[in-house]
Amino acid sequence: MTTNSDFNDYETITDLLASNYLKGAISGISAEMKPTFHDLATWYGYVGPDLIAGPIQSLYDWHDGNGAATDLVYVISKIDIVGSTANVRIELDNWKGARFTDFLNLLKVDGKWQVMNKVFYLHP
């Protein structure tokens, strides 16, 4: 059964991602992404044969070095919420010419949704 609080959480998560993570991706400014992620968040994925893994700061550093993705097109294709946990799938196309699928795991910490982990797939 879906409750009003569930609908509010979907809206809150969608807004968090659009207003911070995706806005930062488009602008090329990692500081705009930071409110999306918990300070202890991590990220993982492959770029070619190389595993990218580590603390979220390394995502910020990578992003700042790569610049704006002004032609980015995205769809938040799935949000699954269970209590204080959530999983989000985002399809991103033309992030600096690349296509990604992101899987974000969120936790509601002190009443605030934050991404704890990002796992991405870079499409060939």
Walk me through what this model shows.
By secondary structure, the protein is α+β, with helices and mostly antiparallel strands. Strands 2-1-6-5-4-3 form a six-stranded mixed sheet. It contains three helices and six strands; from the N terminus they run H-H-E-E-H-E-E-E-E. Strand 5 and strand 6 form a beta hairpin. Helices cover 31% and strands 49% of the residues. The protein has one domain: Nuclear Transport Factor 2, Chain: A. The termini are far apart.
Keywords:
single chain; 124 residues; alpha+beta; 31% helix
List the helices and strands and how they pair.
Layout: H1 4-27, H2 30-33, E1 37-47, E2 50-55, H3 56-66, E3 73-82, E4 85-95, E5 98-109, E6 112-122
Parallel strand pairs: 1-6
Antiparallel strand pairs: 1-2, 3-4, 4-5, 5-6
Concise summary:
The chain is an alpha+beta fold and 124 residues long. It is built from 3 helices and 6 strands. Strand 1 and strand 2 form a beta hairpin.
How many separate domains?
A: 1
The helix/strand series, from N terminus to C terminus, equals HHEEHEEEE
The level of helicity is 25-40%
Assigned CATH class: Alpha Beta
> How would you state the average pLDDT, rounded?
94
Dominant shape: globular
